[in-house]
Amino acid sequence: MKTVFHAAGDRGYNDIGWLKANFSFSFGPFRDEKRTNFGVLRVLNDDFIARDHGFGSHPHDNMEITTIVLQGALEHQDSMGNKGIIKAGDVQVMSAGTGVFHSEYNPSKTEDTLSLQIWIFPKVRNIEPRYDQKNFGDKFIRNQFTTLISPLKSDETLWLNQDTTFSQGNFDAGQQLNYTIKTPGNGAYVFVLEGDVTIADQGLNKRDAIGVYDTDSFTIETNSESKLLIIEVPML
After folding, report:
1. Which residues face 86 on adjacent strands?
2. pLDDT digits (tens, 9 = 90+) for 101-130
């Protein structure tokens, strides 16, 4: 088993007032040759978006984009004709494919938004753009992982144009969790949303991350109440 540890404090950071962004991988003004990707996982941005602010319409192509709202809400609009609100508990996926424009805006006059935006290289390029979203607020069971995104089309999960699985869960202290790789050969990027855990003898705190690969499974020990996101991806 091999690992790569990414401390929260080593992430890139950019503050333009209404947007405060932490970059797990090289993005925008942050450049680090050692942190460009983990397998096909290219971007993991941890964003604070102030009330009544957001991103105007901008283009993407040939990227699988996932947005997870942790607090507040975002209003989405795109060139495919989709328009709506994604709230805490919602997960949004978008296959940019041959090209799409979209905007993301915090419509609230009173509440700031915290969200994750995650980019993954596609399995097949130049597909027809696609959008979907799903609420998982009532799907979580304490001390179990819930699958948010799967490579397979299902009514229970979302899917992306890639052999990737996203899993999230809330755990009590003192849990010993065994995570089994869903797609042989994949690696898993574990992002600690809240709490304190140990993986492969490495301690991780809030917003720390560890990439685990060249293994079929690994163990997570929760040292405190914890909230975890695992992004399983093919390795390049």
Report:
1. 74
2. 999 999 999 999 999 999 999 999 999 999
The pLDDT assigned to 205 comes to 98
Query: Whose CA is closest to 103, among 123, 119, 82?
Result: 82
Give the residue carrying structure tokens 């799967």.
150
Query: CA-CA distance, 210 to 135, in Å (whole number)?
Result: 26
Tell whether the model's pLDDT for residue 140 goes beyond 90. yes
Task: Name 186's bridge partners.
Answer: 234
Residues 197 and 216: their CA atoms lie apart, in Å, by: 20
Answer yes or no: pTM beyond 0.85. yes
DSSP the chain: -EEEEE-GGGSEEEE-SSEEEEESS-BTTB--TT-S-BTTEEEEEEEEE-TT-EEEEEEE-S-EEEEEEEESEEEEEETTS-EEEEETTEEEEEE-TT-EEEEEE---SS--EEEEEEEE--SSSSPPPEEEEEE-TTT--TTS-EEEEESS--SSSEE-SSS-EEEEEEE-TT-EEEEEPSSTTEEEEEEEEES-EEETTEEE-TT-EEEEESSSEEEEEESSSEEEEEEEEE--
